[in-house]
Amino acid sequence: MASASQASLLLQKQLKDLCKRPVDGFSAGLVDESNLFEWSVTIIGPPDTLYEGGFFNAIMSFPQNYPNSPPTIRFTSEVWHPNVYSDGKVCISILHPPGDDPNGYELASERWSPVHTVESIILSIISMLSSPNDESPANVEAAKEWRDNRDEFKKKVSRCVRRSQEMT
């Protein structure tokens, strides 16, 4: 069982690695130097997607038993996307608790695993921005628009991108 001190050491190491070797597409750091369990993340809208040019801020909160349980990620910037709840919480398979899906939508192999790092999680979110999954959406309205009214969807995303640029 991972303890809070083991989680702290792992998070410290991942933070140090990201500082030494930044990854294209995002930046991450602590919200407050005294708390390793809450990170501030800025995701740059991926090129050649509707989100290109945007700067989307999020808070990544880690449980005390990380990496046995996944962190939660909540955008603080407005993001119109089928896999982002209206409160900004990100919904992707790798952030779901480990084991079998009680609803039967996901394989255990698609869900949280302790091998994931901050980097792999954020890269999954960037990938999610590039290709929404409208099969089991967090935001039903956005998913419906993504499927049935792509022009209206694009307009809303463009507005989010513009707003995110004004906030930087």
TrEMBL record:
One of its GO terms (molecular function) is ATP binding. Belongs to the ubiquitin-conjugating enzyme family. Residues 6-166 form the UBC core domain. Its EC number is 2.3.2.23. The active site is at residue 91. It is an enzyme of class 2 (transferase). Accepts the ubiquitin from the E1 complex and catalyzes its covalent attachment to other proteins. Involved in the formation of multiubiquitin chains. Signal the protein for selective degradation. One of its GO terms (biological process) is protein polyubiquitination. It holds the Pfam family UQ_con. The keyword Transferase applies. InterPro entries: Ub_conjugating_enzyme, UBC, UBQ-conjugating_AS, UBQ-conjugating_enzyme/RWD. Keywords: ATP-binding, Nucleotide-binding, Transferase, Ubl conjugation pathway. This is E2 ubiquitin-conjugating enzyme. CDD domains: UBCc_UBE2G1. SUPFAM superfamilies: UBC-like (SSF54495). It comes from Nicotiana tabacum (Common tobacco).
